[in-house]
Every structure is written in structure tokens, then in C-alpha cells.
């Protein structure tokens, strides 16, 4: 099982919807949840990556605000979020996670979106092998 699949399984109780897609060796995953679950999801990701940090590198970036522009139109506001990158040196895996608290500009509905892209064989360290 991939790191993305592990993470989504662990967060299953907080998910309203989740998807996992495979293309060759690559994995893309998404999870949608209620707005009030932001802190719990963020904390779980921090703890998961913290446990893995001895095997590689973790980068964490806090987002205070933002917007989603789709086909030239601003459709959603990002109220807060966090971007995580994880690089596992031994297995040459890279994981890119985006956690967003989103608000629809029209309906004012809010939700949490987690997007994950996983490359199980990144070439970043190929020269070192």
C-alpha cells in the first residue's frame, strides 16, 4: 500500500468523500471533509510525517489565504491551509500534500480538501545511487 493510501485509510472516519487514482506507478488521492475537521486532519498529517521524518525530509508551509481560479474565474476562497512535502530517501518516494479550508464564494459553503500526489520512484537522488 502507498503512503497516500495509508494516510487516507487513517483519515477515513473524518472523510465525507475520498478518491484514489493510479497511473502507472503514480498515485493521486483526495479527501473531502467538514470544515470543523481541519485541525484534526492537519494534526494527523503532522504526526504521520513526523514519524517518517527520520527516513527523509519534511517541508511544511502554512497558508493564510488564497483563491482558486478555474477557467479564468475566481470560484473559491482558501481561508487557510498547509502544504507538506515529504521525501523518503531510501525508497526514493516523494509526496506532495495540500490541505485547504475552502469557501465557495457563491454559496458560502465551507469544507476541507486534502490533495495528495505521490511519486514512488522520484529521480531526485538517482545520481547518488
Describe the structure.
- The chain has helices at 3-10, 38-52, and strands spanning 17-23, 26-34, 56-63, 66-70, 73-88, 93-104, 110-119.
- The chain has one domain (3-123).
- The protein has two helices and seven strands, in the order H-E-E-H-E-E-E-E-E.
- The protein has 129 residues and is an alpha+beta fold.
- The chain starts with a helix and ends in a 10-residue tail after the last strand.
- The protein is globular and about 50 Å long.
- A hairpin with a 5-residue loop joins strand 6 (93-104) and strand 7 (110-119).
Relative strand content:
over 45%
Shape: globular
The averaged pLDDT comes out at 93
Q: Which structural class best describes the helix and strand composition?
A: alpha+beta
**Count of the domains:** 1
Relative helix content: 10-25%
DSSP strand count: 7
The number of distinct helices, counting runs of at least 4 residues, comes to 2
Ends distance: 24 Å
The largest β sheet comes out as: 7 strands, antiparallel
Write out key terms for the chains shown.
seven-stranded antiparallel β-sheet; 7 strands
Amino acid at each position: 500500500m502507498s503512503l497516500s493510501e495509508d494516510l487516507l485509510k487513517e483519515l477515513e472516519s473524518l472523510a465525507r468523500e475520498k478518491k484514489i487514482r493510479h497511473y502507472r506507478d503514480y498515485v493521486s488521492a483526495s479527501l473531502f471533509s467538514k470544515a470543523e475537521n481541519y485541525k484534526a486532519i492537519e494534526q494527523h498529517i503532522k504526526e504521520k510525517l513526523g514519524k517518517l521524518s527520520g527516513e527523509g525530509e519534511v517541508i511544511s508551509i502554512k497558508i493564510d489565504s488564497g483563491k482558486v481560479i478555474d477557467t479564468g474565474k475566481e470560484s473559491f476562497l482558501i481561508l487557510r491551509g498547509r502544504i507538506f512535502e515529504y521525501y523518503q530517501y531510501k525508497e526514493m518516494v516523494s509526496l506532495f500534500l495540500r490541505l485547504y479550508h475552502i469557501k465557495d464564494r457563491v454559496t458560502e459553503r465551507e469544507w476541507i480538501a486534502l490533495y495528495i500526489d505521490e511519486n514512488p520512484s522520484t529521480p531526485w537522488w538517482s545520481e547518488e545511487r
